[in-house]
Specification:
195 residues; mainly alpha; 0% strand; elongated; single chain
Length: 195
């Protein structure tokens, strides 16, 4: 995970060196520090998303199995994989319902809406609730050194302000802002801020 921001943003075709070349020497160390903070925050975010995906793969698979969804393991793993990006697993849920209905039609089973649609949807919603309100704030908060409330607020603000992209970058940016503010306050307290 190391070098996430440097690899994708700062070092892209020499951008990192290019920016350093144009910055005054007095700001170059600040730029390097900023890139290091962003790198740590984005790496922590992706590490947390992978941990959450592993946990939710089990939860989605089990929920789909007990509610009788066809191909429960496949859809459980797909939903968790898509869930690395918040809320993208909704597409897998819809696909699972369609395949479940189609499988019932092929097997000439009754189209019991409660069994084929309601219970799998409730199970999916419960796992989404656990992921969104418990796992993400807890895992991402621990990994990024943010409180669960801060994670929830960051996701809400990020989603409202930036849509899909805002959802993805909100937690690492909140963590980076926190780290930068802490660094600034420590330096201010020591009296080492340049005027």
């Amino acid at each position: 995970m190391g070098g996430v921001v440097h690899t994708f943003a700062a070092n892209s075709k020499g951008t990192y060196r290019y920016v350093l070349r144009w910055l005054p020497r007095s700001l170059q160390s600040e730029y390097i520090s900023l890139m290091d903070v962003l790198n740590v925050c984005f790496a922590g975010f992706f590490r947390g998303r992978i941990i959450i995906a592993l946990i939710t793969a089990f939860l989605f698979s089990y929920a789909f199995k007990i509610t009788g969804v066809s191909y429960w393991l496949l859809f459980g793993v797909l939903a968790a994989s898509f869930n690395i990006v918040p809320y993208l697993s909704l597409f897998v849920w819809l696909l699972a319902l369609i395949v479940n209905m189609g499988d019932a039609l092929i097997k000439n089973e009754s189209l019991d809406i409660v069994r084929l649609f309601v219970w799998p949807s409730v199970a999916f919603g419960v796992v989404q609730f656990v992921e969104g309100w418990l796992l993400t704030p807890w895992v991402q908060g621990k990994d990024e050194d943010l409180s669960a409330a801060t994670v929830l607020v960051a996701i809400s603000v990020g989603g409202m302000a930036g849509g899909f992209v805002g959802l993805v970058v909100s937690i690492p940016l909140a963590a980076a802002l926190k780290k930068l503010a802490e660094s600034y306050l420590v330096r201010l307290k020591r009296g080492t801020m340049e005027h």
